[in-house]
Amino acid sequence: MSNEKFEKKLAIRRDFVPKVADKQGVENRTGARQTTFMSSTLEQKDIISKQNCPWPPHDLIGREPLNRTLFDPKTLSTVFGFMKKGHFKPQNCSPYQKIAVVVPVRDREPQLRIFLNNFIPRIYRQQLEFTIYVVEQTPGNLFNKGMLINTGFIEAMKDMKYDCIVIHDVDILAEDDRILYTCGDNPAQLSTKIQKYGYRIPYERYFGGIVIFSTEQFEAINGCPNQFFGWGGADDELSSRVRRVHYNLSRPFHQYGHCGSVQHQKATRGTDRYKILRISESIWKKDGLFDLFDHAYTILEKQRKPLYVWIYRDIDMKKVRQKMVSYIHKGGKVHK
């Protein structure tokens, strides 16, 4: 099947179709690498020996039901032996983009195994270079999704200059490999038909499940909020940040956005999430990615396992909230 016919079949939006590059290789305004044979980022020996991986990918299957079998980690490592220390790079071609996949978790070991067994083969068929970062919070304080994501981003960028960051809930998994894990001119939600919501999204401004940014976009919105403890609120604030920076929220693969849901025990809700949402409108430029180190940034362990990089960190809720108070005292207006 030709690339032209395949693009029509995928119904990819224009800002996600690779753009024509000149002979020297260029970057679009998000910094995402363009498809071109000559790339300034490649060494001369790679330019001679490697061509770009086909884009759109040629070996996609389409929609398949999730495999919910609980395989042990050793079996998964054997099946996906092409993964090395949580990382994969195509050997015979130059990948279109480099992707950091950040998965925030706590007490989700069975769900993580199901995630790995379904996510890895689908993104593998897309011939992208990617690393999976599983960021786990210690017991004690309420779960802080936003700060775990920010932690994963910072640690990932220490390892490699990625083009894109995928923020991926461990319990929402793509059923269709035509959901391409690539970033474009706007932040994008890839999970648009979610099983637990009747294969739809719960409300129009919902921006959770599986979302993707270019690294520049994620920095422009100051990453995720750090102030949401407990379930709820963080995804809504992330959506608001996208709009405040005047990006459009894109859903480029809506036709193929079917995502299965993996059951788990419900997390504790954040009782003050609506209050924090009101406050975030005033402090979002201060609270987020760039001030993470001021929030008792403590990584207890960073371990490179066969299928993912495991980051274990502690979060001091008292110190995080003290920081929020300092933002307000320095001039932030709180909307009651």
From TrEMBL:
Enzyme Commission number, as recorded: 2.4.1.-
Pathway: Protein modification; protein glycosylation
Role noted for this protein: Catalyses the transfer of galactose onto proteins or lipids.
Keyword Transmembrane helix: yes
GO biological process, any: carbohydrate metabolic process
GO molecular function: galactosyltransferase activity
Galactosyltransferase N-terminal domain boundaries: 82-183
Main location, first listed in the record: membrane
Family as reported in the entry's similarity comment: Belongs to the glycosyltransferase 7 family.
Domain Galactosyltransferase C-terminal: 189-265
This protein's GO CC annotations: Golgi apparatus; membrane
SUPFAM superfamilies on file: Nucleotide-diphospho-sugar transferases
Protein name listed in UniProt: Beta-1,4-galactosyltransferase
Pfam families per record: Glyco_transf_7C, Glyco_transf_7N
Membrane topology qualifier: Single-pass type II membrane protein
Keyword Transferase included in the entry's annotation: yes
InterPro entries for this protein: Galactosyl_T (IPR003859), Galactosyl_T_C (IPR027791), Galactosyl_T_N (IPR027995), Nucleotide-diphossugar_trans (IPR029044)
Compartments it resides in: Membrane
Keyword tags: Glycoprotein, Glycosyltransferase, Membrane, Signal-anchor, Transferase, Transmembrane, Transmembrane helix
